[in-house]
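Lay summary. Proteins are chains of building blocks that fold into shapes, and those shapes determine what they do. In this project we predict the shape from the chain. Here is one chain we studied, written as its sequence of building blocks.
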Amino acid sequence: MSGRALPLAVTMGEPAGVGGEIALKAWDRRAELPPFFLIDDPDRLDRLARRMGRRPKLAVIDRPADAAATFAEALPILANRLAVPVEPGRPDPANAGAVLQSIRRAVALVQEGVAGAVVTNPIHKSVLYQAGFNHPGHTEFLAELAGSGTRSVMMLTARDLRVVPITIHLSLAEAIKRLSRQEIVAIGTVTAAALTRDFGIERPRLAVAALNPHAGESGEMGREEIDIIAPAVADLVARGIDASGPAPADTLFHDAARRRYDAVLCMYHDQALIPLKTIDFATGVNVTLGLPFIRTSPDHGTAFDIAGTGVADESSLIAALQLAGRLVETRRPRASSGQA
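And here is the predicted shape, written in a compact code that computers can read:
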């Protein structure tokens, strides 16, 4: 990270989950990380640290600019107060407003140019729904905050694998119904552009997974490859994108195959997530592509069953912070030269 790098804004996430715990533990490894600050309730974090048997080193800051000077000695916190005290593992809808406000503030600070990127801790959507939240998840909410016309895409990455699900949080039956040529092309286009802008890959190679076994066996096991996926690949190629497929999913993820592409477009959630979490369960990162700002997140949930116990693994948050820092550095030269 350069000395001019802005600190990263880390959101509260669901306060009854493990977000605060992994943030405290990540700060212990601050020598490996770009400076960051939490948008969170300092009283909650103080109680949580003591519950974990830690002597809290927390510093309430007034503005992101104070984070870099504080970071070496204490974890910087931009205060975002909860409505009611929280008990680990027991989410309370009364705190949903603070959770959403933390995300809104992080985005606003990045848009104002005083924070470098947004790193989100895990949320619990069912609690937010009770408070009127009407988005399927972080990705769609961030697109709304980014402004009209933004098309956001979820990418998961770990080690040498990047996967992009075309359909996400749908039943398998519904995902197949929703699969369309237009959606594959739209998501593939955003993915290719983001791999160039944010990952520095001048000509990204996209592999496109088949839906059916053996890529449909020439229509004997389904026609989605013939009617939807292959035409979408042709459209991507016509746009100048290096895309190939549809390829049988059972041969796309072994070591040699992963060297042949930069990202895989997968047709449904588990087709993307199973190989990624098998290859590297601990350090997967969720990246939102297509936004005018950088956003990463740990690739895990709130883990209510272990919240507050001190055993949550901070590796995925650390990977999300490190990746956010690298993406900011990659995007900055392009933005300054007018290529963003």
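What the prediction tells us: The longest strand covers residues 153-158.
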